[in-house]
Amino acid sequence: MASPAMSDPVLRIGGRALHEWLSADLPVLVKTVLGELVARIPAYQQLPAEELSGDISRVIRQNLRSFITILRSRALPAEADLRILRESAARRADEGMPIDVVLTAYHLGVQVIWQSITPQVRDADVTDLMEINALIMRYLELVTPTVAAGYLEQRQTIFGDEHSARQTILAALLQGTPAEDAAVQAGVRLPPGYLVLSVAVGPHPDESKPDLDAGVIARRKLRRVRAELARRTREPVLSSLAAEGGTVLVPVPTPPEELSADDWARVGTLVTSLTAAAGADVLAGAAAATPPGVARAARTAREVLEVAATKGHTRGVYRLEDVLLEYQLSRPGPARERLAGMLEPIGDQDDLLDTLTAYLRLGGRRKVAAELHVHPNTVDYRIRRIHHLTGLDATRPADVSTLEAALVARRALRPPGQGRSDTSTVSRP
After folding, report:
1. What are the backbone angles phi and psi of residue 347, rounded to the nearest 5°?
2. 234-257 tens-digit pLDDT
3. Distance CA 308, CA 322 (A)
4. Assigned domain for 183 exists
5. Higher model confidence: residue 74 or residue 359?
6. Could you read off the pLDDT of 137-168 as tens digits, one per residue?
7. Which residue, 37, 57, 318, 403, has fewest beta-carbon neighbours within 10 Å?
8. Does residue 16 share a domain with residue 127?
9. Is the pLDDT of residue 183 over 70?
């Protein structure tokens, strides 16, 4: 890729052969580039002195030598030179240095050379200066993707290893087996506690459009949820998520019993932000636990989620304290059977059960009529009919809690698949 031969193949500035001049000044140039990196890029200020004087200086020297060779030969770097730059970028990826910082360093090195050249330029040097500028552009055009490729390849390897390690820790925690060994192998320390979320993610509106690929839309929704989790949490979360939801473990710096109202409020904010990111309803059951108690907390969170969904909730975060009565009524026992029996006279009259569910949730005949797309008089008739059959009046405050409990007990005894019954107005995860 050499340039066409010229009468004088040596590029000169100020009457001096540029490659000889820069080679003689190489130690000074290395120190100048290193000083500029530290002064202008905060990430380099945090590196230990031995790394700056060792590996970083070595790469700067190699980069400058490579460019000086280009000025001498007017040919782009050889594969061996590019391999060194690629390996250096991989080490920066290992150190967690951002890719924009890595790329800026290479541009800054060339910039230092340019700034050392320009004060010496004479009128007779303009032609050579233009060729030097062209070589700089070609050099950066080649080096930038090479460095980026080396960096990103290593980051993908690191991400795969980290993801595998986290999934091993998550599996151990959810199975109730000791997770300390897996954490040690992953190079992480288990936190004092976790906020355990059982999450249900509703469908995005576009998933139901026949002319769109529902699978692609669902996967994009999931990516947004994962990205929002990473953005909103200080420490990496452990999660097992699909487009419909899953389990999320958010590490917290305090044991569960020391969590404050503000800590729980932040969980609510997190779930709200996930709803916005997903573009769909996000409902979560939540519990807190130390690492050994995660498995039990996950079961509780999942059961709380199921109860909240059965009550008709479609978004927000709920703890056991928020659904305590309904949770208890969903457990086996004589009280549950007796409460469920109170609605037995209704049988499987779906219109009555749908109306009762909506009325207890919305608390007004016109709101219910709008949701069910019926006339308000129809709502009144159905409520009177329920009163006639069961003896319980949804318009009477004293009967409201009994009817709500009876609905919860009925749903617990009639899981999905045993008739549609009263499930039409309840969003299930």
Report:
1. 65, -135
2. 778 888 999 999 999 999 988 998
3. 9
4. no
5. 359
6. 888 888 889 888 888 888 777 666 666 777 88
7. 57
8. yes
9. yes
Q: Are residues 322 and 351 in the same domain?
A: no
Tell me if the pTM is above 0.70. Answer: no
- Count of CB atoms situated within 10 Å of the CB of 89: 28
Q: Is residue 5 scored above 60 in pLDDT?
A: no
For residues 367 and 394, membership in a common domain is answered with yes
Are 303 and 363 part of one and the same domain? Answer: no
Which residue shows structure tokens 């997903």?
Answer: 278
Residue type, 320: L
Q: What residues have CB less than 8 Å from 61, skipping those under 6 apart?
A: 26, 30
Domain match, 18 and 148 both: yes
pLDDT tens for each residue of 395-409: 998 888 888 888 888
Q: Which residues of 413-423 are buried (b: 16+ CB within 10 A; e: fewer)?
A: ebeeeeeebbb
Any bridge partners for residue 251, and if so which? 194
Domain that holds residue 25: 12-157
